[in-house]
Amino acid sequence: MPNVGIPGLILILVIALIIFGPSKLPEIGRAFGNTLKEFKKATNDLVNGDSEQKKNNEKAEVVKLEKSETKTGS
């Protein structure tokens, strides 16, 4: 990823201000922030969902084993 320093960031902000104007920048910033928040939430759900699904599958297998043991033991 390119390494953008403070002067480069200021230049990008000035160009964005010239192109979009001062009234549109807060709206664009809010939309960008919401997009990032949704993306982070979706990636966390994917990562955590896999581990939760594995735990649920393991619990289901344990329950099946316990049920089969009680049926064969009686």
Question: What this model shows, in words?
Answer:
- Helices cover 86% and strands 0% of the residues.
- The chain contains two helices and no strands.
- The mean pLDDT is 83.
Give a quick precis of the structure.
Helices cover 86% and strands 0% of the residues. With 74 residues, it is mainly alpha-helical.
What order do the helices and strands follow? HH
Overall shape:
rod-shaped
Alpha plus pi helix count: 2
> Largest sheet, described in full?
none
Category by helix and strand content: mainly alpha
Rg from C-alpha positions? Answer: 26 Å
Strand percentage lies at under 5%
Number of beta-strand segments:
0
Give the CA-CA distance, first to last residue: 65 Å
Number of domains: 1
Question: Which whole number gives the mean pLDDT?
Answer: 83
Residue windows where pLDDT falls under 50 for at least 5 positions: none
State the helical fraction: over 70%
Task: Considering the chains and any ligands shown, give keywords for the structure.
single chain, 74 residues, 0% strand, mainly alpha, 2 helices
Fold topology:
Layout: H1 6-20, H2 25-73
